[in-house]
Known about the structure:
With 373 residues, the chain is α/β, with parallel strands linked by helices. The protein has helices at 3-6, 45-53, 65-75, 88-99, 114-122, 142-147, 171-183, 240-248, 257-269, 271-294, 319-327, 354-370; strands at 30-31, 82-85, 105-110, 126-131, 153-159, 187-191, 216-221, 234-237, 307-311, 331-332, 334-335, 346-350.
Amino acid sequence: MRVRDLVREHLRNLSRTTHGGTAWKLGAIEDYSHNLNPFGPPPCLPDIIEEAVKDIGHYPDDSCAALKETIAEHHGLESNEVIIGTGSSEIIRNFPHVFLSPGDRALIPRPTFAEYAQQCNVAGARVMDLLLLDTEDFRIDTERLLHRITPTTKAVYICNPNNPTGRVEPRKKILEIVEECRRKDVMVFLDETLLGLVAGHEEISCASFAPSYDNLLVAESLTKTFAIPGIRIGYGISNSEVISHMDKVRMTWNVGVIEQDVAASLIREHQDHVIKASRILAEESRWVFERLKEIGFPIEQPSDSYFYFASLQTLRSNGADFQSRMESKGFMVRDCSSFGRPFEKYIRFCVKDRERDEAFVKAMSEVIESLGW
C-alpha cells in the first residue's frame, strides 16, 4: 500500500502555496517584494522581548486574556469579540474548518492572497474564482460578486487592501456586501492585515463594526504594521458567537508568552509608530509613482496603498525575467506568476523611504533600458 492511498483524496494533488519576502536568503538584496513596514519595529522591541523572557518558565495563558483586553480596548470592543492566532495565518486556516463543509463553495476574488484558497481546499471546500479585471482597475464589482453567489456558496473572501493589487475598497462598499451576504446566509472573511499602513485607515477599517454582524470575521495582524514576521501574532474580530465557534478549532497554547506580551505592549503603547509610517508611505507612494512615470515604466495611477501591481506587457517582459534583472541590480520585486494566469506578466513592489526609493527607481530605469526602451 502506498502512503498516497491513505491520504484524503482532495489533498493528494494539493501543492504548497508560494509567497514573497524571501530576499533575506540572498544576502545583500533590498527586498521590495514584501509589504512590511519599511521602518522596522519600534526600537524598544528588544527591551520588550527581554522583559517577556522572564515568564517563559510557565505555560502561556491559553485564553490570552490580557492581550484580548488590550485589543478590545484599542478597537472599542468586548474581549469576547476577539480571538488570538499564531499570525493571521491561523485565523485564515481555522475559518473554513468552522464554516465550510466538504463540497461547500467559497467565492474568492483573484488575484489575492493564496492562503485563502489553500485553506479552503484543505478543508475540502470548492473554491470559485471571481477574476478581478484590469478594465475595472482590479476593483471588486459588487453586482458581479453577488451574482456569483449560489445556494452552495457559504463564504466570500475579501482582502483590503488587496494583495497583490494594492486596491483599497471603501468601508461603505464592503459593509453593503456583508449585508447582502447576510441575506443569503453567506459568511464574509475580511482580511485587513495590510490596512494599518494605509493613510486614513481609521475611516476604512470594518473591524469595530464586525460584532454588529453575525456573518463577518475581520482578520488583523501585527506582522506588516510592526514589521515582525518572525513573531507570529494575529487576531480575528467578530461577534461573540462567531468567536466562540472559532475558538473550538484553535490549537491549545497557540500563542506563546513572549508573543502575548510583545503584542500587548505594541498595541497599547506604540500605535504612533504605525501612524507615522502610514503617512510617510503615502507621500513616498506619490513620489515613486511620479518618478516611474518619468522613466517610462508602465504605471497608470498612484496606488491606493503602499505597494504596486504592475503589468509588464508593454515592456515585452514577464515577472520572472523582470525579477531576475532587478536582482542583478540589488533589488527583489515579486514575480506574480504564482497568482496564476493571466498574471505571469505582472510584478508587485512596495515603497519605502526616500533614500532607498531613489536607488530603487534608478535600478528600475536601468532595467527598462536593458529591455530596449
